[in-house]
Amino acid sequence: MADRPNIVFIMSDDHAAHAMSCYGSRINQTPQIDRIAAGGARLDNCFCANAICAPSRATILTGLHSHLNGVLTLADDIDNRQENVAKLLRHGGYQTAIFGKWHLGHGGIHDPSGFDSWCVLPGQGDYHDPDFYDMGELVSLSGYVTDIITDRSLAWLRGRDRERPFMLMVHHKAPHRPWIPDDKHAAMYEDEDIPQPPTFDDDYRNRAAAAANAKMRIDRDMTHVDLKADPPAGLSAAERKNWNYQRYIKDYLRCVASVDDNIGRLLDYLDEEGLTDDTVVIYTSDQGFFLGDHGWYDKRFMYEESLRMPFVVRYPREIAAGSVVEAMATNVDFAPTFLDYAAIPVPSQMQGRSFRSVTRGDVPGDWQTSIYYRYWMHLTHHGVAAHYGVRTHRHKLIYYYGEALGTTGSIDEPRNPEWELFDLDADPMELHSVYDDPAYQQVVAELKTELTRLREQVGDDR
Ligand code: CA
C-alpha cells in the first residue's frame, strides 16, 4: 500500500493563501488546514495558469494549459472525451470520486468522467439546501453546502473497497461570492473589526490603465446581494468603504471557518481509520482572491493575491513535517504529480511535471524558475482586460494585449495594449510598474525573451 498511496484532494473556491494561518494570515485562524501544513509541506510559490474557476479546474484535471484543454473562459464547458487524471487513476486501479463544485458544464460530454462516483453542484450551486447532480440525476439536499460535500465524501470513504487505493476530490463551493455563512459561524467576528490590508486605499497610479479600469472595488462595485444589509446613515466615504469591507470579509472568513472545520472531519476520519500514513492529503484553492488588497474583491489579474494558489500537502511516509517549499509549481503540474504518486506513467501530451520530489526537498537541477500565465476573458464581469505574462522568482512581466480574440464569454471591445513590469523584491505589493524605468530595460528584454520561450513551449500562439 505504501508505494501506492491514497490521494485526498481538497479544493475550495477563491480561498486566498493570506486567509490561512499557516500562510501567516493577519485576519483569521485555520487550525485544520494548519494540521496539513504542520504535518507536511507548505508550497510558497504555487501559481495558477489562469486565475478563474472553470479554467483552473480544467487544467487540474487535464494537466494542460487552457488553450489546449478548451476551457479558456467561464463560458467554455469541458469536453470530457479528452484524457484526464481521474480516468488514468481509475484505469490504474484507483477508486475515484468527486463531490462538490464542478463548474465545467453538465450533461453528456460535459459531465465528470473517470469517476466511479460523483455528485456535483449545478453551475455555481447554492450555499443552503443545494441541488446536486448525483451521477447525473438532479437531487435536492437539505443543509449547508460545505457540510453536505464532506458528508458525501465521508460516506463514500466508509463504503469503499479497502483493498484498493483511492483518489477523492472534495471540491468546496465556499468561500465563493456571495459568501453566505452557515448558522454555526454566523456570529464569528461580530464584535471586532478585521484589519484592512496595506493596499486597501490603492490609487492605481504608476501602473497600466487595466488596474484603474477594473470593476471590483469594495467601495463602488459591491451589490446588496454581497453586503446583505443597508449601511447606517451618515457614513463618510472612508467609513462606507470600511463598512463594505467588514461586511464582505467577515462573511468570507465565516465561510472559510466552515471549510476548515470540515477539513478537520476528514483528517479525523483518516486518523481513526489508520489511513494517515498512507494518504496524500492536499488542500488548495482554484486560485487566490483579493481580500481588500488594492481596494478589491475578486481575482483574474496576474497580481500576487489572485495568481497565488495556497497549497499544503501531507504524506508522512516521505514529506518531512513542517517543510516549506520555495520551488515553483503550477496547477498544470497537479495531474502529473498525482500520477507519480500512483506509479502511473504521465501521458506525453500532459504539459506539467510532477513535483513529488520537490515536496521532499529534492529539486531537480532543471526545475522551472518561471511560469506562464494567461487570462483570456476580456473585460467580462469585472472589466479586467485579457492578459498574459511571465513570473520569475524576482520579477513579473504582464502584457495586456487588448483584444477578445473571439473567445467565448469575452467582450469584443479593443483596448490599447499595455505592459507592466514589477520587481517583487523591491515592490512586493505591486504598486509601481518599472516597465518604463531605464534601469530595468535589460530585465524587460530578458523577460520578453523568456515570455516568448514559454509561449512556444506551451504552444500558445494566439
Ligand atoms: Ca474560483
What is shown here, in short?
With 462 residues, this protein is α/β, with parallel strands linked by helices. Helix content is 27%, strand content 17%.
Please describe what this structure looks like.
The chain folds into two domains: 6-182 and 246-362, Alkaline Phosphatase, subunit A, CATH 3.40.720; 371-458, 2-Layer Sandwich (Arylsulfatase, C-terminal domain), CATH 3.30.1120. Helices cover 27% and strands 17% of the residues. It contains 13 helices and 16 strands. It has helices at 31-38, 53-62, 66-69, 85-91, 145-158, 209-213, 224-227, 237-272, 304-307, 334-341, 356-359, 380-383, 441-458; strands at residues 6-12, 41-43, 46-47, 95-101, 117-121, 131-134, 137-140, 166-171, 279-285, 311-314, 323-325, 329-330, 370-375, 387-392, 395-400, 418-423. It has a ten-stranded mixed β-sheet with strand order 7-6-5-4-8-1-9-10-2-11, with helices on both faces. The longest helix has 36 residues, at 237-272. Bound molecules: calcium ion (CA).
